[in-house]
Amino acid sequence: MKHSNYIVIFYSVVILLVGNLGINNSALAKPVSQQTASKSIDLADKQLKYLGRVTKDKKFSLTGSGLSFNVTGGNVWASFYVNDKTKAALNIIINGSEKALFLKSGEHRYLIAKNLIQGEHTVSILKRNEAAKGTVQLTNLAIEPTHVLRPAPTFTSKLLAIGDSITCGYGNEAKQSNEGNTLANQNGYQSYSAIAARKLQAELMIVCWSGRGMSRNRSVQNDETGLLPQLYNYYLPNESKEQWQASVFSPDHILINLGTNDNANGKIKGKLNKELYLTAYQNFINTLRADHPLVHLIFAIGPMKPGEISQWLPELTVKNKNTSSLIFSSYTGKSEIGGHYHPHVSKHKLMAEQLAKHIKNL
After folding, report:
1. Beta strand pairing status for 323-327 and 296-301?
2. pTM score, two decimals?
3. Cβ neighbours of residue 202 under 8 Å, at least 6 residues apart?
4. Which CATH number belongs to the domain containing residue 135 in this structure?
5. Can you spell out the DSSP letters for 94-114?
6. Which of 129, 150, 171 is the last residue of a domain?
7. Three-class DSSP category at 53
8. Burial 231-243 (b: 16+ CB within 10 A, else e)
9. Which residues contact 4 (CB under 8 A, 6 or more apart)?
10. Which helix (H) or strand (E) holds 12?
11. Which residue from 9, 214, 326, 356 has the least number of CB within 10 angstroms?
12. Same domain? 121 vs 204
């Protein structure tokens, strides 16, 4: 009888202590933490719209490549794999609002959208920086079980932008010129062709690589290795394995902005040879025209020291039908200059206005 009294007294004390600590009795039976339930999406789901150049096993490396989709709300998770040598970043755009995601080496799961309210939301996952920064592989995509995917937004046209560091958005968010180009300050989503594409409601593919040219690269040695027209032939130019299939993407307009690097280091390598440059340009035109006979080609240059190229490009428009030239305006002040004297986002916006207007007036 005494033992049972002691037991009653013991439990009474425990209950009093629990009450005084403010602990809900029902909570004692629940696990310490609960992970929100999720369901994986088939990466071949037709509701997913892959953008740019993405391989069958969902690898992408080029600026602006990735995917877009609509979801009815809740949380969205994505898993990515990058190798130990890769330092890559993505742009996560939710209903037009952009944020950067810096990826860790190996395979990791990321919460890319949190507590989206009931209703349709557009989510885009795009490579923030260029192919030289490495390949990203999407390995899993998941949403909450109570939500579903909806078709991704449609586009009214297609634009292919081919270029060098300027087109990649090199250092475009740098606050000082001496910052150069970093994982954080290179933002392809804020590059001129990406901004113009949004203005035009055009689906965009960017093929770019810093330091590369049409007839010769910026480098002093081996400046004909890995020219942009050579890199154009691959899904993943940094790996140069799987050949790009031109039938996958049929653009209405192709912008080519190559020549700044051809002009570079002239004091060391000698002045750019006009004939060699225009011959290489014409050969690339022939390649693009063979793939896309009806496309309109735009030959562009600028705004970084275009030199005589700005006078040469109109000659190509005379020789080639359904083409035009576009000379981006020069800098008007320091506020337009980003890393290593490349265009700042403010200048990219002005270039985007020029490009969008040019296309609208064709």
Report:
1. parallel
2. 0.90
3. 155, 156, 157, 158, 159, 196, 252, 253
4. 2.60.120.260
5. ETTEEEEEEPPSEEEEEEEEE
6. 150
7. coil
8. bbebbbbbeeeee
9. none
10. helix 2-21
11. 9
12. no
CA 221/CA 209 separation, integer angstroms: 17
Structure tokens given for 253: 């307009």
**pLDDT (tens place) for every residue of the chain, 362 residues total:** 434 443 333 333 333 333 333 333 222 233 333 468 999 999 999 999 999 999 999 999 999 999 999 999 999 999 999 997 888 999 999 999 999 999 999 999 999 999 999 999 999 999 999 999 999 999 999 999 999 999 999 999 999 999 999 999 999 999 999 999 999 999 999 999 999 999 999 999 999 999 999 999 999 999 999 999 999 999 999 998 999 999 999 999 999 999 999 999 999 999 999 999 999 999 999 999 999 999 999 999 999 989 899 999 999 999 999 999 999 999 999 999 999 999 999 999 999 999 999 999 99
Both tokens of 194, joined, read 């990406």
Provide the domain limits for residue 279: 157-360
